[in-house]
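Narrative progress, year one. The postdoctoral researcher (J.K.) led the effort to move from monomer predictions toward full complexes, under supervision of the PI. The following entry was the first complex the group processed end to end, covering 771 residues in total.
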Amino acid sequence: MLRKSRRLRINIACAATVAVVTALAVSGCGNSGTGPGKNVITVAFGSNYVMATAALAPALYEGLAKQFEAAHPGVTVRLIPIPGSPNDIITKLSLLYRSPSTAPTIAEIDSVDVATFAQAGYLLPLNKDLSGASWWQGFPQTIKNEAALNGTVYAVNQGENVQALAYNKVDFRKAGLPVPWHPKTWQDIINAALAIKKNVPNVTPVWFEGGTSDGTEGVALGVGNLLAASSDPTVYDKSTGKWVTDSIGLRQTFSFIHALTVNNLNAPVADLFNPNATGNATAYMMNPGAAIALASNYWGSSWLKNDAPAWPQATQDIGITPLPTVNGQGADIATLLTGWDQGIYSRAQNPGLAWQFLNLMMQKQNLLTADNDGEWIPPDTAYTSDSLYVNFGAPFQTEFAKLEPYATEWPGTADFPIWSEAFQQATGALEQSAGTTVSSAIQTMNTFVGEGLGPSNAETRP
Amino acid sequence: MSSDTLTASPPQGRRLDKRRFEWGSSVLLLPAGILIAAVFVYAVIYSFYIGLTNLSLLGPKAVAYNFTGAANLSRLVNDPFFLHSLWLTFIFVFGSGVVGATVIGMALAVLMQKALVPVRLFTGAVALIAFMLPPVTIAIVWYAASVPQGTLARIFGNPNSDPLFSAPLLFVSLANTWSLAGLAMLMFVAALRNIPKDITEAATIERVGAVRRFRTITLPLLKPTVVTCGLLMTLLSLGNFTIVWLMTGGGPGTATTILPVYSYQQGFEFNNLGYGALLGNVMLIITAVFGVGYVLVARGPRRKKGRSS
């Protein structure tokens, strides 16, 4: 009895100690901290994914910091390089923003995620500053809108990616296909791929990336472009506030991917679903070789300038043609617009300085350096014909820049990642197995959107 | 009892045969208490709270979040992907941790008893290195081995085949087994040394076959180690996010979305930090149950020993 009561006392004492200390720890954790000071601006950027090689981004931002510190004595620019994939960059940024003491004054955010950062209240409205910036006038309206939420602009685009079809002229000649090639409909793509498969058996007929391994980036640079080129590219119905899980556009997209898989035309899933597929695709086109690829504008400068193994032969062997719409409707050109933007922290202690840094980044020389390093198309159409840009990976740069006016973007709200996941799952299932039907892919859309956002937020469009 | 003890004067000072609690020792316990409270208890309480909110990583609810009561719980029980990931976790943990690592560890230990010393040393070292490698390295080794043109595809005679994506759960499980078998082997090597030689020698003299010797002598005597090892492997496999995430990212589709991966995806890919935390809490509870089981099992034999002596 005595022993029991003693043990009880020990237990109570231990519990009390832990409880008291927990209370102390909890009360101590309330301190949210302050920013780095009025004369310091912190700049966060993706250090090894965003630019073509891991050395370029730090060099670019160090150069900008030097320029800025020279022009503003007494001001320090502190860099926050963020390694990893797009998902890692966004995750790290969203965690940095949770406390004013770690939130970067200026941050590089991929354009589809800007709105969700703005919804969280992390970004400063820029309309007033932008109205006085001469360079902003050269931005096309689609790019101005890209980082805007209800008319308020929260970030400025630094460079864009658009997609088109790249095809290997050598393979096309072997297969008896016309060069230059200008497919008018999706059926033309399938027909060409079938001809390649029959006549040039040692190359992969097509590279169309889908699936979950590269997140939103993977499908935005890949099969998401098909949806943009379909009869109904709607992802989010603004009139009803619902996310589209079944539409003629989704069904056309899924049918096309299904046709690729059934006919064994697409690259092996091991390559398509590789976590670095968007980066590896440029090398894949060269070796083992793909005859047709849904390519992004960075492929050209990657072959010619930035990456090893360089592929100078690409200028002769590779042709670029716009991705046609499903039945040749409209302008018969479609692409998604993705890119990277720069935003200013809403509670920055020195918004004036931050704006001046952003302004410095947007000056012609700095912007074009960033665009070439990032293998992007400049957001300002006045620069797309500038020799500094054009000669960096000619002739591909000009071919892709022509597509910018036709580009459309995905809605970047907080709920978008759920729809995107559904789309990745559906397209991944279609690419993985010929047994996946179009209706089961639609079912996947419904299941994922229904689970993530509630079935009432899923919409079937006629 | 003799009359001497009855008449003897009561002992002076404190009794030494009973446990006592020195209040002064709580000061000495304080540093440990602070550590446990700050980095464990607080985190657990906070995570249970976050699990019942609609906190998101980004978007409007990133700052202005609120307590949503049982909303996340009702979502959890109706979430088909949660049940799916729970099932995958069970297969992964049971298959690779409990069965795979324990059986292979035991087999290695038993076989090594009879092996030549150099073979024994070499095998032991390899298994131990596999256990000591960081999970990132294990994931890369197994990824490289199981993709097309990789070692396994070449061994199977078809370099273009794709073992990893044909049987994703099998290969992440194999990677996990490979990494844990070394530890299991160590446990069994120690346990085998404690089996009295005279019993096995007597059995050998009685011309009992090796299989029967193993089944009727070695295995029953190893039973406590099998249970301890199984539980430990369960605990180590339950938290194994890295290998799966790096090898498959939870895919293709949801083929390898075990609970830690699903929790991460909900929190950091779909921005649902609240729901992701709840999934983490489920994992915490499961781990706690096995952890308590492990502590009880690990303590069991020692207690018995204390009583009998």
